[in-house]
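To whoever is covering the structure queue this week,

Two jobs came back overnight. Logging them here so there's a record in the thread.

Job A:
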Amino acid sequence: MNMRYRCTFGFALLLLVFAGCESRPIFVRDRSFQVALPDCWHDVTVRRCFDVDRVHGVVWIDDWANDQLLVRRYDGSLVQTVSYRNESAFGQAAKGEGFYAHLVFSLVCSPRPDNLVFVLSGTNEPRIVVLDHNGDILGTYTHLNIAPVSGHLHLRTDREGYLYVVEKINEIPGRGSPGALGLTKCYAGFAMWWLQYASWSYDSAVAPDGTVYLVGGANVVEIYHPDGHIIKLSSIEDALGGGSRLIGVDQNQRMFLVGGSEKRYLAVHDSDGKLIAGPQFIAALGAADRTPVKIDDLGGVYFVKQESDGLYLARFVLSNQ
């Protein structure tokens, strides 16, 4: 075989190799989204809370140093502030410094057109405060046995307006084992059904259509129908080296997980557990970092980025290279 044919054969073989390689999408920054965060957010030992209201194009941010919630547009401009200083509906903070001295543990914006905002607050008697999109208090849910346990303080919601909270099962007669936790689906503060966690290492997410995902330490995901019956079990392809946490599921049933101790990585799996994107480095972490990572129904990922002039909430989206 002469040199010309060798080169042609080699080039054709290279094309076949590249054609057989599946290119995974990567996360790129959405530059239209840039929201400045309060100075108090530099304290990573406090649970920092936010959520994105895609109905009105704003972000709700807890500014605990000033006992208020900030509502900002995607370009960072301020829409309004909602004070909870001396507001009895938000309950009382426990005495002490740091994490438990602050009122707001979690907040979530409903994707429904009426767009209610649910705030998990209070430490002595945890409750859920219901706000409208103008920040007016509509009511409180105080009869849920909310578990004020680090790692289980998130709230979830779906397009139908149902709220999902983690409860202490040992305090609910006739439900679950002593000391157990469980996920409760509720409407107007009243439970509709409940799922017990197999262990405290469990995490949960709710897809926009109300499908519920539970993930345990064994990287097995339990997928439940909106009415509470199990659909299937899937094994997650472990791309994060253990210790991963489920942060959300988008409208395409893709599961988004984060993991890592000193560095935070992000990976995306389909509903069968197959890895379809990542793992991708997204941020360096302090040992006590409590900053949440959130996703929207389109698969946009929101987390905190350190810039030269301060902290910002950034949005990243999947993009094929």
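Job B:
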Amino acid sequence: MRRTCKPVGWVLVLLLLGTLSGCGGGLGRQKVKISEIGFSMTLPSGWSVDRQNPRFFFDSSNSDNSGMVEDYPLEGKTLDEYLDSELGFMEKMEEAQKALVEELEKAVIGAASGALADAFKVRIISRTPRTINGLDAVELVTEAAYAMIEVDIQKGDRVIRVSFRALKEEFPKHEPALREALESVKIE
């Protein structure tokens, strides 16, 4: 009888630990740590850090919802100049993409409607100056097939970009948790 109780007891302990690790709150929340740029952030509950690359993370229940941390040189520009340049480049890419899609539509269906090209157009919902960990930052919220919230943080002569994307129709439900994660950003 005693032999049977030990394995059953271990099974119960493992089941309990598995249940607790999936609970909300502080339990089960993973942290992104990127030591080479002095970055850390607590992810929303249910999100996981990619095992292959700690700069990538995703919603465990829907991998279409994901995020990443990037860093780039400012190349002698201010943070606002850098973002203006990035947004200008994005606009030029959209124009080229639209022309290409319209040519494809003409070749395939005989006319260009523009509807397909418009589906890929990125709209800037908001651009808000912020301070994160005492550093100048800008928050951008954009929308296309996905909604994105990103924060670009100036650290010396570099910009650290933290972004989350979610399906457009799911973004409103995820937005509070994504904003909470962005508030948890620490940069040394």
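Note for Job B: Residues 1-26 have pLDDT under 50 and may be disordered.

Please reply-all if you pick these up so we don't duplicate work.
Q.
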